[in-house]
Structures are given as C-alpha cells and as structure tokens.
Amino acid sequence: MSVDSAPRDFPIPEIPSCLQLRTVTKGLIPLAESKKLDNYRMGAHVCLWARQEGRSMFGEYRAAVMMQLRFDGTFGFPGGLVDKGEDMMEGLNRELMEEIGWDPSAHPVTWSDYYSTQVAGDRKLVLHFFIKEVTLEQFIALEKSCLQSRDYGKEVMGSIRVPLYTMDNMYNGLPAFLNNKFAGTSKQQLLLALHHSKLLTEHEISDVILKSQNLKLAPNRF
Ligand SMILES: O=c1[nH]cnc2c1ncn2[C@@H]1O[C@H](COP(=O)(O)OP(=O)(O)O)[C@@H](O)[C@H]1O
User: Membrane-crossing residues (predicted)?
Assistant: First the structure.
C-alpha cells in the first residue's frame, strides 16, 4: 500500500468562533505532542465527503457526508483503533477497508487529509481526525462497497449521509440529526469538518447548534 507515512507535525487547527465551545476544543493537541504520549491507544477516523448539487424536497443537498451507524447504536466516522506497532496511516486505511470496503491502493487517505488530534487523558486515548473530499461517483461506489465489507452487519450497521439542511419547522434535518448519540468526539468532528470544507458558514453552524439545543427545551416539537 502506498500511503505517505512520513512523520510530520501539524499545529492545532484554527477553531472558528462558532465552535469555540469546551466540548469541541477540549483535548486538541498538536500532532507532535501526541507522539510523546506513552501507553496511549491511538484511533483514527475520517470524514469522507463529496460535493452534491441540487436539492431534495426537504432542502439543498450541498454535499454527501458519510457517517456510519456503529454496533453500539451510536454514529461515528469510518476508522478505528490502530494496532500496537502499526503505522497510523496504514492502520486507518486498513480500518477503512474492513469497514467500508475502501480500496487503499486506489485512493489512500494520506497525511494531506489530516485535520486534528485530540487526547482523552482519562481514557488514555489519542484520536486523529482526517477530512477527505472524493467525487460523488466515488462516494456512491463506497456506499455500495460498505454492504460487501468485512465488518458490515457486525461492527458497522451501514453508512449514512448526514442531512445538511434544516427543514421548515426549524428543527428537522441537521439540528435533529445532531441530537443522536455519537461515538467519541465525532459530533464535534462533524461540525469542524462542515466548517473546514466550507459546506456551512459560521453563522449556519451557530444557528444549527442553537436549533438542535432548542429541542431539549421543547421535546414534543414535531
Ligand atoms: O468517529 C469517531 N470520531 C471520534 N472518536 C471516535 C469515533 N468513533 C469512535 N470513536 C472513539 O474511538 C474509540 C475507538 O474507536 P472504534 O470503536 O471505532 O475502534 P475499533 O473499531 O478499533 O474498536 C471509541 O471508543 C470512541 O471513543
């Protein structure tokens, strides 16, 4: 497999003001710092997305963004824990092959897709996050290959597309989606990826967070 495994450092990404929330910024460290941590498990996940023109009857698509329903009933990004002694990029690409049938020799996730590193000291866990744009054609091919993957129906219960629109009742769509249960830091990573990829503006992100929290005040809204 040809993946760029050269060790490099990356600073903490610039976090937009709409996401300057403790839940989002907690534990963010530069990549080089994570390499000094002893006896930490290392995980890597990737947000794969493709531009998508047009709109459905519910709102504008903007993009297809892939998340997956995991064995534990939570949503997360494809990826997982890297084995002891395994190169990080090799481990991530291996996880993608197992979970979504990704062909790493054709389209490897590389360091150029790196976005952030977060550390959960209490769990002795370091989580690296990558964001990769693919074509819509590749995205659709991946959705199909998920069904044939080794882990489908076991660790992974299927890929999903994140709804990026907000419907007329000001809640359904992305705000409602954000009230699901998410694995690890994947909800924060999703919001960061939407900002980084310029799929949502800062104003739209603030608005979506506010609308998703409104449900907690009005649980019977539909
Ligand atoms: O998409 C994600 N983003 C950030 N953290 C995640 C995501 N999915 C899982 N995690 C966290 O990483 C840990 C290991 O991930 P995962 O369960 O995917 O590894 P595995 O498939 O190797 O068991 C989980 O316990 C969870 O805390």
Answer: none
Task: Decide: 190 in ligand 1 pocket, CB within 6 A.
Answer: no
Domain-located, residue 100: yes
* Ligand 1, atom 15: closest residue by C-alpha: 80
Query: What residue numbers bound the domain in which 207 lies?
Result: 17-217
d(CA 11, CA 117): 9
185 lines ligand 1 (CB under 6 A): yes
Per-residue pLDDT tens for 156-205?
A: 999 999 999 999 999 999 999 999 999 999 999 999 999 999 999 999 99
Q: How many domains is the chain built from?
A: 1
Residue 222 lies in a domain: no
3 state SS for 152-194: ECCCEEEEEECCCCECCCCCCEHHHHCCCCECCCHHHHHHHHH
Q: Is the CB of 128 under 6 A from ligand 1?
A: no
- Look up the pTM and report it: 0.93
pLDDT tens profile 104-136? 888 899 999 999 999 998 899 999 999 999 999
CATH of the domain at 35: 3.90.79.10
ipTM of the complex: 0.94
Q: Is residue 145 part of a domain?
A: yes
Q: Would you call 42 exposed, middle or buried from its count of C-beta atoms within 10 A (0-12, 13-18, 19+)?
A: buried
* 19 CA distance to ligand 1 middle (Å): 22
Question: Is residue 8 domain-resident?
Answer: no
User: Which atom belonging to ligand 1 lies closest to the Cα atom of 79?
Assistant: 18
